[in-house]
Amino acid sequence: MSSWLYTALGYTDKEKDARKKAPTKRDLPQTPFTMDEVKQHKSTASCWIVVENRVLDITAYIASHPGGDIILDGAGRDATDLFRDVGHPQDAYDVLDDLQIGVLVKSKAAAAPQPQPHADAAPQQ
After folding, report:
1. Dihedral angle sign, alpha carbons of residues 51, 26, 44, 33
2. Is the confidence at residue 20, as pLDDT, over 60?
3. What are the structural domains of the chain?
């Protein structure tokens, strides 16, 4: 991520250094959210968007977004097409990692881990 972006997001020098290691997909938050939950966050006080099935909390980023308030066009909805149509540079994709709070799921039930049979359990017939 560019140093200007770290500054815009209000990171201290120590936080900047810690974030320079790019997170792997496993390190990114994987909390499941439904679109109904995302839709509840469409104001400048609490603003979430979805980009490529990643749920992003952009609330703190709105003021420093290089494109200005246009980012609010995606508030509370899937903004993947809006994001792609702009032709963002790689730095913008790096910002997604910093803003990700979870992933989009169709339902919470579908996202819940299914119980696995105990290894000693007899096979069902």
Report:
1. positive
2. no
3. 3-107 (3.10.120.10)
**Digit-coded pLDDT (tens) for 56-102:** 999 999 999 999 999 999 999 999 999 999 888 888 888 999 999 99
Cα→Cα distances 73→64, 69, 70, Å:
15, 8, 6
The answer on pLDDT for 106 being more than 80 is: yes
Supply 96's token pair: 């997604």
Percent of the chain with pLDDT over 70: 66
Q: How far is 68 from 20, CA to CA, in rounded Å?
A: 25
- Report strand pairing: 42-43 vs 100-104: unpaired
User: Which distant-in-sequence residues (6+ apart) come within 8 Å of 19 by Cβ?
Assistant: 1, 6, 11, 98
If phi > 0 it is left, if psi is from -120 to 50 it is alpha, else beta; for residue 72 that is alpha
pLDDT at 64: 93
CB 62 within 8 A of CB 47: yes
